[in-house]
Design a protein that fits this description.
- The protein is mainly alpha-helical and 431 residues long.
- The chain is 77% helix and 0% strand.
- It has helices at residues 14-21, 37-49, 52-56, 58-67, 76-92, 94-104, 107-124, 130-153, 155-159, 164-192, 195-216, 221-224, 239-268, 273-301, 303-322, 328-341, 344-357, 362-372, 374-387, 397-429.
- Helix 10 (164-192) packs antiparallel against helix 14 and helix 15 runs antiparallel to helix 17.
Length: 431
Amino acid sequence: MSKGTEDANGTLSKESIIEALRPPEAVPSPPPDGGYGWVILLAYVGVNAFTWGVVASYGVYLAYYLANNVYSGASDIDFAFIGGLNFSSAMLVAPVVTIFARRCGTQIPMITGAILISAGFISASFAHEIWQLFLTQGVLVGFGVGFVAIPSIATVPQWFDKKRSLANGIGSAGSGIGGLIFSFGTQAMIDSISLAWSLRITGIIVGVMNLIAALMIRNRNKAIKPPQRGFDTKLLRRYDVLLLLAWGFISMLGYTTLLFSLSDFARSIGLSASQASSITAFLNLGTAIGRPLIGVVSDRYGRLETAGIITLVCGVTCFAIWLPAGSYGVTIFFAIVVGAILGVFWMTAAPICVEVAGLAELPSTLSLTWMSVVLPTTFSEVITLKLRRPGSGHVYLYPQIFAGLAYLVASGCMYELRRVNKRKKRQECCP
C-alpha cells in the first residue's frame, strides 16, 4: 500500500477507506450481435416499411395530383412541398424526439408517432383546400414518421457490432418493401375506390403496424448510457462531423428528386398512369434488394468507403442511364438499379455516425444529421419541378443533371471524410 494512503500515525485515512469501498465502474457490455437483437431488427424492418416506405410511395400521389385538378387553385409546386414536408417535418422534430426518448424511453415516442401518422392520413382524406393537405398529409404525417422512426434508428446499432451495417441494411430494406407494397396498392385503391379511401386505409394500416413495432422495440441505454442530447453543438466544431453533414445535405438533393419525380417523369415520356406508378414500385423493389447487399459490403470493405463509392455510382447512373431513358423498359431498369443505391444515406447514416463520433454520441450525432437534411428534403422537389421544361422534347433534362451533380459532389465530401478518419486512426495508433 502506498504511503499516500496512510496518515501520520500509519493508519489508513478516511479518504482511502472510502476509495477502497467504492465499487468499480461498470464496463458497458458489448453488443450481442444477435439474440433479442433479431427481434429488434424485425421491428425495425416494420418501422421502415410503414413510415419511410409509405412516404416513398408519395410519388404515386404526386403524379395523380399533377394530372388531376383535385384541389382548385393548387399549383405543381404546392404538391411538391407535401412530399418534402414528410421528410423535413420528420427530421425537424429529431432533437425533440431524442429528448422525449431520453425521458420516457423508446416506446412512448413511437406510440405517439403511430397515432400522429395515422391521424395525418385519415384527416387528409377530408381535406378540401391545399393548406389542409399541407397540415395533414404533409406536416402531421411527417411528425408521426419522426416520432416513430427517430427513436428506433438508434436501437439497432446498440444490438449489433460486427454485423452492424448488415443489420442496418436489412432494416433499411423495409422502406423498399413498404414502398413497393404501397406504390402498387395506392394506385389500385385510387382507381378502384377513391383518393379519400386510399388515404384512410393507408392511415389505419400504418397506425396498427407501427403500434406493433413499438411494443417489440427495446433499447440498451442502461448498458451503454448514451448522453442522448437533443442537439449537441460541440459536435459542430469537428471537421469530420461537418463533412458528414455536408454529405447528407447534398446527397438528399439528388435523393428527393429521384424518389418523387420518376412517376411524373414516366408520364412526361408518354407512359400511362399505371405504368408510371409501377416505376415507383420498381424503384422500391430495388431498394428492398439493394440495401441488405450494401450492408454486407459495408461490413466487409468499410462503411465510409462503401458510402463514397455508392454515392459516386448513383451520380454516374443518373447521367449514363436516366438521361437517355425514353422507353418503359429502360426506365424500369434505371428505377431498379438506382433504387438499390439512391438511399445510401439512410442505409449508412447510423453506422457512419458511430464510426465518426462513437456509440455513446450516436443519438446526438444522428440528431444533427437529421437536422442537416431538413432544407434539401423540403425544397429539392420544388427545385426539380421548377427545372422542368414543359412542352420540350426532354422535360426532365435539367432535373436529371441536378440529381446527378448532387450525388457526384456528395461523393467528394465522403471521400474527404474517409481521408480525415483514416488520418485520425493513424494518430490514435501511433501518437
